[in-house]
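#structure-requests
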Amino acid sequence: MDASKNMELVGDPEQLRQALTPIRRDLLQRLRTPASAVELAHDLDLPRQKIGYHLRQLEDAGLIELVETRRRRGFTERVLKATATAYVIDPDILTPATTPAPPTDNARHAADHLVAVASNAVRDVVRMQTNADKTGTRLLTYTLESEIRFADPDDVHRFTEALAAATAAVIEQFDSPTGRQFRIVAAGYPTPRTKD
């Protein structure tokens, strides 16, 4: 695997199960830079045999890989590295992928439609970024984020209609029949309350 991979989509339930224990999450975090079992045992203040067991499980799951071996005091030391700097859980693990319905008025305001669209965006972008990493190319993306306060619940619907109309006008201005196709997603949801 390419050592420069930024993200990896974890879509196999067994692979996810192997990664979720606290010690294995610590190992994946630490293995963003190459290390041996001896180094990891020292860093985490754990027995080398215990570290070795967890490293084998992560390696079998394809989450870490061997980057070099070196001779050390009569034995061969294996140096390992995580296969990615971040792992993204494929939403399909719990719920099979669905094709979101076209954005009708009912779907436009449905939480399950938003989740389906967001899940597809996560899956698509991580897969494309993984392919871009493998080929040494850049994935062209953009993100627009903002917050708004609505004085009245009915303003949400009026805002959505105005945003849809403005988006359609901008798309019409820039759309080209021969250009690279992009998917545009605009979504809104209440800002989560912070705990005091």
